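User: What would this chain look like folded?
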Amino acid sequence: MYRQDGEDIFVIDSHVHLWDATEENIKHEGGEQFIQCFYDYHTGFTPEGKQWDLDEYRQYNPDRMAEDLFGNAAVDMGIFQPTYLTDFYEEGFNTIDDNAQLAEQYPERFVVNGRFDPREGEAGKRELRRQKEEYDVQGVKLYTAEWNGDSKGWRLDSEDAFEFLELCSELGIENIHAHKGPTIRPLNRDAFDVADVDDAASSFPELNFIVEHVGLPRLDDFCWIAAQEPNVYGGLAVAAPLAVHRPRKFGEIMGELLFWLGEDRLLFGSDYALWNPDWLVETVMDAELTPEQRDEYGVELSTDVMKKIMGENAADLYDIDIEAKKERLRSDDATEEFGLADHYGTSGTAPADD
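Assistant: Here's the prediction, encoded as structure tokens.
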């Protein structure tokens, strides 16, 4: 478990992937453009000495993922967010079935989410029912800019999408993670717009809409929507790495989010393997607002606030009893396998041997 200033911080990484972008899996030039764009984000924000080479970035094995997330004590649990992109990749980019295989090895460590695409019609509804029946998913990841034949995106407030949201409600899939962030080559920027979140959230108050990447670069639009829709949350993946090279910008983003949404509706995410939590958790936990930002927004990144953002808020959405989870992890074989001790240094890493 991560520890800072004597406080234990239970970290739930709410945005992780297990992807395959090998050249053998790419069936459309968009697949190569997509992973190259991811890699540009990786090298642009990852500190020197922590960067991967492109070959390992294309496909890392499940054991490495488990070690990267849990072996360094940075993360206690991860929530899989599948992204299929089957127009670009033969076997899909990041599928629920692949994710579930790894989750079976570490059942205390992972939450498996599903996905849907309303353009798939009745076949898509059958698939969503299968995901619930087979994996008991509590959430879905939605990629509104994904290509599907001649279509280069869809809207969350469309009639077809509402049918799937109704099905989610019926099945008890309450957490709707919508990707609303920066453009990724060659996808359409407009298909990531946050405007369609408003009607969907109003129409389905029983569902939680987690807007991944907090709408960047449309932060103002997202904040105004979230301020009036109490079931809208912000996922910090993509925003979090700004704490490395743009600390004032990160402070501005966090100030706006805390001012408009408050500390109970924000979720940490590394976006692994875009970025690795072994350095990102520490960077975010060490971030501070400037005195001017604290005065303007009337907030600060206190330990109590960050404990909510780093894990407690995700635990609330996914019915995770953190204290009970801690007990199970202490006795879990994975804890011994990763070499994790009960106590960690202030940096969050296991103490060095004497």
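Confidence is low (pLDDT under 50) at residues 339-354. If you want, I can go into more detail on any region.
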